[in-house]
Specification:
The complex is a heterodimer. Chain A is an alpha/beta fold. Chain A is built from 10 helices and 10 strands. Chain A has a single domain, classed as P-loop containing nucleotide triphosphate hydrolases (Rossmann fold). The radius of gyration of chain A is 18 Å and the shape is globular. The N and C termini of chain A lie far apart (43 Å). In chain B, helix 4 runs parallel beside helix 6 and helix 5 packs antiparallel against helix 10. The longest helix of chain B is centred in the last third of the chain and has 27 residues. The N and C termini of chain B lie close together (9 Å). The model of chain B has no long low-confidence stretch (mean pLDDT 87). The chains are: A alpha/beta, B mainly alpha. Chains A and B meet through helix 2 and helix 3 of A and helix 8 and helix 9 of B.
């Protein structure tokens, strides 16, 4: 078992009633890479993330994290192993100020373990983390209720909540969706900085152009199966991928 | 010309919001006043009351404790319809211990508080995964089941109940102990829910997946909230056992489930102070209406409806807003 792979997935299948969301999927995530996962709507991308983080239990198959079997582990335990994710639908605690939204991840046992018990004031740590994802420190924005923030800031908040957990692997579920080009352009450097720190990143995206610019490797899903993987050029050259997105003439 | 209501925080409120840099007595009183007022009222009022109304005061404190206990659960995302379970569990535990071994109330009450809380938590542990109405239904059914079990199996005195419990040493002690307990729980829980720990509990109510996503075991936190809440309920029950020197099936009655919810809703959910305020209105009101006879419950219900329709946010939240904000009507620009 090589330690180069942070995640290894073997023959993973998930059936919801009569719908097979993920079917006998094999894949590995290498340490330090940025893996992009793409595919048409309903191809099983988010289900795959839910399976990896334990929010949904697989019908069959196996998931290993650093060689450890996490297939049936409770979600909160998997996250304590160093896998953090963001949600596609951001649902912050609307009435709380943005920085107070950071308290809950900072209360996590994972943070206590990584930073060693006492690490000072949670509020101060929260403001530092928010600054890291682009909340201007001296502006009022970090103190505003989360419900009053524009979408771009909500996505950054979601990202900051994942970073707060000091994860090895960060899974970003459609982080760019609903953002303007300028907003995406301002988040990309944050992701690149995370990579320089050695974090492994998985991005699920529909914004292919932006994703292809930063991803090392792309995996394409369709109807719960992997239909292609490789570099952006290789994937886009694949006939099967074109068919999946545009439909085939048959 | 259309007008709209504008609300502006008072200057002192804005300054005292999170940093206490208050320089004058006036400002300090502004912050401390609302906290001191109930303390002073609760501690001084019994001195001017007749023995009958002093008894009402004890009952008021008991319902206030149950309402706080309900509010605690509600703030953690669990809507309970069965506060009578906590109340009855505490009442029977201290009753049984005292009846069997004649142990002093000062020992039986803490024992019943801790073990009552533990037992209730263990009973409800399997349903912590249920959300919303499913959890509520379970809590509603449990006390009813226990009552029928006691009736059918005739354990713990059956329908007659157990009597002859030792009373508390003196009347004044009896009254002031529960008042002090109620105030301590009020301020203790308020502080707890304002801390980061409380934030996690409220987070579970708003979005439990997001809390799980922080690597926090939400069931462990829910169980802790449940224990705190049920221990407070059990304390109220255990206390009542020694005040009445009797424990029987009525301790599982629907009154002990519904009245706390009514108090918390009338007073305002989510502040604990609202729960006490609600109980302070509803319990004496129920006593005042006692002379009316048959229509008592109807009038009582009518009052409840009026409160809820007129001030749906709760009396406490209404007063708090009036205290902290200036309101004025301004023209709407078009």
């Amino acid at each position: 078992m090589s330690t180069d792979n942070i995640i290894e997935i073997h023959k993973l299948t998930k059936v919801f009633g009569g719908v097979t969301a993920v079917f006998e999927l094999d894949c590995t995530i290498k340490r330090g890479e940025l893996l992009g996962i793409i595919g048409p709507n309903g191809s099983g991308k988010t289900t795959l993330v839910n399976l990896m983080t334990g929010f949904v239990k697989p019908t069959s198959g196996k998931i290993l994290c650093n060689g450890k079997n996490i297939t049936r582990m409770a979600a909160h335990k998997i996250i304590q192993l160093g896998i953090a994710r963001t949600f596609q639908m951001v649902r912050p605690f609307y009435q709380l100020p943005a920085f107070k939204n950071m308290i809950i991840p900072l209360y996590s046992p994972r943070v206590k373990q990584m930073l060693g018990g006492r690490y000072g004031d949670r509020d101060a740590v929260a403001l530092d983390l928010l600054e890291e994802v682009g909340f201007e420190r001296d502006a009022y924005v970090a103190y505003k209720p989360a419900g009053a923030l524009p979408q771009g800031y909500l996505k950054r908040l979601e990202l900051a909540k994942a970073i707060a957990l000091q994860p090895e692997l960060i899974i970003l579920d459609e982080l760019f969706s609903g953002l303007s080009l300028a907003e995406v352009a301002s988040i990309v450097p944050i992701i690149e900085k995370l990579r320089q720190k050695g974090k492994t990143i998985v991005m699920i995206e529909h914004r292919l152009k932006e994703l292809f610019r930063i991803a090392d490797r792309i995996m394409v899903l369709n109807f719960g199966c992997k239909i292609a993987q490789g570099t952006a050029e290789e994937v886009m050259a694949s006939e099967e991928v074109k068919n999946a997105y545009l439909g085939s003439e048959r | 010309m259309k007008k709209r209501k504008e609300r502006i925080d008072r200057g002192i409120k804005a300054r005292s919001g999170d940093i206490f840099a208050l320089s004058s007595w006036r400002e300090m009183l502004y912050v401390a006043g609302p906290r001191l007022l109930p303390v002073i009222l609760f501690l001084l009022l019994p001195l001017f009351l007749s023995p009958y109304w002093q008894r009402v005061m004890i009952s008021l404190a008991v319902f206030a404790l149950l309402a706080i206990s309900w509010d605690m659960l509600a703030q953690s995302g669990m809507i309970s319809l069965g506060q009578a379970l906590f109340f009855g569990m505490g009442a029977y535990l201290s009753g049984i211990i005292n009846h069997a071994w004649g142990i002093h109330p000062f020992i039986t009450i803490p024992l019943a508080t801790v073990f009552g809380g533990l037992i209730c938590t263990l009973i409800l542990l399997p349903v912590l995964r249920l959300r919303g109405i499913y959890f509520s239904m379970f809590t509603l059914i449990l006390p009813l089941m226990l009552v029928r079990t006691i009736e059918a199996t005739k354990v713990f005195g059956g329908t007659e109940g157990l009597s002859g419990m030792s009373p508390l040493p003196s009347g004044w002690l009896e009254l002031y102990l529960i008042i002090i307990a109620t105030l301590s729980v009020l301020f203790g829980f308020r502080r707890l829910m304002a801390s980061d720990y409380g934030l996690v509990l409220k987070g579970i109510r708003d979005n439990d997946r997001s809390v799980t996503n922080a690597g926090i075991n939400i069931y462990w936190f829910k169980a802790q909230a449940l224990f705190l809440s049920s221990a407070v309920g059990a304390f109220a029950g255990a206390y009542m056992t020694h005040v009445y020197m009797f424990v029987g099936m009525p301790v599982f009655a629907l009154d002990y489930s519904i009245m706390p919810i009514a108090s918390a809703v009338v007073g305002g959910v989510g502040s604990f102070a609202g729960a006490i305020l609600g109980a302070s209105i509803l319990v004496p009101l129920s006593e005042l209406l006692r002379g009316i006879g048959g229509l008592r419950i109807v009038l009582y219900g009518l009052c409840l409806v009026i409160f809820i329709v007129a001030i749906p946010e709760g009396i406490f939240h209404y007063l708090q807003r009036k205290y902290q904000q200036v309101e004025r009507w301004v023209d709407v620009d078009r």
